[in-house]
Amino acid sequence: MKNYLILLGIVLLLISCSDTQTHTVFLAGDSTMAEKKADKYPETGWGMKLNQFFTEKMTVENHAKNGRSTRTFIEEGRWDSLVSKVGKGDYVFIQFGHNDQSKQKIDRYTSPDDFYKNLSRFVDDVRVKKGIPVLLTPLMRRRFDENGVFYDVHGEYPDVIRKVAADKKVVLLDVHKSSGDLLAKLGEEKSRALFLIAQPGVWENYPDGSNDNTHFNEYGAQEMARLVVSALKDTELELKKELKDEQ
């Protein structure tokens, strides 16, 4: 009887530990995802809004950095720093493309072939640590032609990400498509409300105004994080079970 009670106690302890076990969602990416300094407010990366969608069992750790491509994220040691922290059952959300495709910015440009190789390495490194990699396509920039028709400027890079996801059998959150659909639906004028766009004198940190069609204001970041969560709900990842019901 005594041995039975001891065994029962151990089982209950293990169950209790399992129920309270926490994991981390690591974020690797560029300025659209990154944390922003107070003097840049209301510029907001969508990664800053992600944690509020999860239960207390998940922690979001944002390693995204302004202006980084897959190449510079590796060269600066940012990737090694991130992956060194990954443990079994942790998730790594990987979203690049904005800076990789910038041919005019040779300090960050990454060829499509190297982009594929870098993303593949990211996936492999996370899996070695028994983590779960998740690839994301880049969020759309706000672009409308003279007729008010929305268009994309990312070229082949989103398709490279889709190919890596297919080849490596990685979950893909295709927010490139969903954010494009959202901008097209809102149209040229209403879509301004998502971005860092304002007339002079509206925002204290931007006395001369702002016409940034790449980065988000706080509302826009919230909506982009919502697109990420919506895509997550359509996957088979266990992570979606840790989304708050009210979201």
Structural overview:
With 247 residues, this protein is α/β, with parallel strands linked by helices. The chain has a single domain (23-242), classed as Rossmann fold (3-Layer(aba) Sandwich), CATH 3.40.50. The chain is 39% helix and 15% strand. The protein is built from eight helices and seven strands, in the order αβαβααβαβαβαββα. It has helices at residues 2-20, 47-50, 70-75, 78-83, 112-128, 157-168, 175-190, 218-233; strands spanning 23-29, 58-62, 91-95, 132-136, 171-173, 195-198, 210-216. The strands form two sheets. It has a five-stranded parallel β-sheet with strand order 2-1-3-4-5, with helices on both faces. A two-stranded antiparallel ribbon has the order 6-7. The model is unreliable at 4-18 (pLDDT under 50).
Q: Largest beta sheet: what is the strand line-up?
A: 2-1-3-4-5
Helix content: 25-40%
State the domain count: 1
CATH fold annotation: Rossmann fold
**How do the SSEs run, as a string of H and E?**
HEHEHHEHEHEHEEH
Second CATH tier, the architecture: 3-Layer(aba) Sandwich
Can you identify the CATH class? Alpha Beta
% residues in beta strands: 5-15%
Largest sheet: 5 strands, parallel
CATH-defined superfamily: SGNH hydrolase
Shape: globular
* Extended strand count: 7
Radius of gyration: 20 Å
Low-confidence residue ranges:
4-18
Overall average pLDDT? 92
Total helices: the number is 8
Terminal CA distance:
47 Å
Structural class: alpha/beta
